[in-house]
Every structure is written in C-alpha cells, then in structure tokens.
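ok posting inputs for the manganese (II) ion job
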Amino acid sequence: MSHTLFISDLHLCVKQQHCTQVFLHFMRHIAPKAEALYILGDLFEYWAGDDDLDDPFHQQVIRAIHTLAESGTRPFIMHGNRDLLIGKALEKASGATLLGDPTLIDLYGTPTLLSHGDMLCTDDVAYQTYRNQVHAEGWQQLFLSQPLTQRKTQIEQLRTRSEIEKQHKSREIMDVNAEAVAELLREYGYPRLIHGHTHRAGHILHHLDGYTCERWVLGDWHETGNALRCDAQGCHAEQFAATSVNREGSFPKGTRAAATR
Ligand code: MN
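and the output
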C-alpha cells in the first residue's frame, strides 16, 4: 500500500556521525518505498545560509535527498528553528520542495496539518519574542549579509546561551500550549496535526468543539531514527537503527475512521 513518511529533529551535523549513518541508511533503504517524505524541520543542527551548501558534509546530506527525489519519492522540507535559513539554493540542489509552516495537506483523504511545532510553544514568551525577530525578513537579510564564518560563530554563541537558558526552563514551558494547539486546529477546520520540535514523540487526542483531532509528535534522532508512517488506514511510529527496522507502535485499530477527522 502506498504510504508517506514524516521525520523531524535529526539535528544532523558532522560531529554526529552515527546519526548521519542512520539517516543515510533511512534514505537509501526505507524512504524510497514511500511516495513522499516530509522533513518537518531541524534536519540540520544549524543552517547558517545556503552559501554553506558546498561543505562536504552538507553535500552528503543534500545528495541523499536528491537521490531520493530521482528515485520517485517526493521530498518536502519545512524550516525548523535550527535551519530557518534554508533557502532556494538548497531547495534546488536537493530536489525537495520547501513548505511554509503550517501547511495543510490531504493525506489519503484525511486533512492533515503539518508544522515544525515551535510556534505552538507559546508559554515560552522569551523564545516567541526571539522567534518573531528571526522570522522577520529584514533581520534575515541583515544576518545573511555577514560573512559565513561570522554567522557560524554567532550561531554557536546563540546555541550555547540557549542551552544554558533551557536548564532554567521547566518542561511544561518548553512543551506546546494546549490553547495554541486548539486555536490552530480550529483555524484549519479540525485536521489531524503532525509536528516535531518538542522531542516528545507521542500520539495525543484533542477533543475540541465536538471533534476529535489526533496530534502526532515526531521523535528526534540519536542512536535510532524515528519516522511516522501514514497510509489510508492511519499512522504509526517506526524506529530505525543503521541496519534494522523496528515497528514501535501503531494506532489502535478501529478508532481512527470513527473518531477523528
Ligand atoms: Mn526545533
């Protein structure tokens, strides 16, 4: 049966060789069986700008996406907070289509809303202020006008600061806000929602205005990779190691068609 795969939060970087191997294995052996692959943000640990495409590590990743596209699986990329600066050049080099956040798709008859997920973390007021700033076109133009090495240094400093700040933030503050989720679901007509960012893989049902919407949270990648596999019957989470594939869980049988939309 034809199916579609969703992944996010791989945080690929040259230092994480094992994770990169899991990704390359996934791209060679698992993703080509799907009709589409959606990468819902934070593919890279950070992206300083498309002028960093020539980096050999980046080339390896981009080539894997391009090879997948050539094999007949359509790749889509959504920005995460780490790789917000992915632009047209990467889109062209990878053969992927860049998606806005959020994007509503028809997934085998079920309206499905895709998002990275960081915009839903509204309890983290400081982060949302920062997010608004870096999403502004003027800020991005100014940032990208600096030399690449300077940008990389700035990002490294920002990441160090953010890691320190995170230690003082509660788990609740860094999770999605229930009201922000409800608002988004209402705005888009009560779809199924798939997002990443929080690194808390899960399947949550939202009962809202007489509708039941399922929300799938994608897992992050470390020693194993995580993907959500969806077909006309529903979705289930799968885990991948560099050489093996394990089914991790599946949607309870019989509940999807009746209870959700
Ligand atoms: Mn993220």
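notes: The CA atoms of residues 159 and 171 lie 18 Å apart. The longest helix spans residues 148-166.
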